[in-house]
Design a protein that fits this description.
137 residues, elongated, mainly alpha
């Protein structure tokens, strides 16, 4: 059970990052009434956060961050870096930086699959266990 949780946790985090990015996009960035509130000089305090997010995808900062995480995942062969690349790729994909986001999500996911597959113990194909190999006649 522990290995199943350990294997599925990065994938759960990637999905949660995508859901969080979609919620931010559709409930915090896109509504026109929130944009009009932030245009006023005496807007709510959270308008600075909203403006920073908007600048991050207009300047392609989310795409660059996703690409940097992808390079890190290719250089540092660790599940954390692969998960980070896939998460930032999913976030960038949802937040309008779709070229870099798609590439980061793809490479991060493939790297994560490879690292998880390398950590698995191969199954005994012939089900012989600890028996000795017999010579061919």
């Amino acid at each position: 059970m522990k290995s199943a949780f350990r294997t599925s946790l990065p994938w759960l985090l990637i999905v949660l990052a995508g859901i969080a990015a979609a919620l931010v996009r559709y409930l915090f960035i896109e509504p026109a009434n929130l944009a009009h509130l932030c245009e006023e000089s005496n807007g709510p305090a959270w308008c600075g956060i909203r403006q920073a997010i908007v600048i991050a995808f207009y300047s392609y900062g989310l795409g660059y961050a996703a690409l940097a995480a992808t390079v890190l995942a290719l250089v540092w062969k660790h599940p954390v870096s692969a998960c980070l690349a896939a998460m930032l790729g999913f976030i960038a994909l949802v937040m309008y930086c779709y070229e870099a986001g798609a590439l980061a999500l793809l490479i991060g996911s493939l790297r994560l699959i490879r690292l998880q597959a390398n950590g698995l113990v191969p199954a005994d194909q012939n089900r012989q266990g600890n028996r000795h190999v017999q010579a061919q006649p």
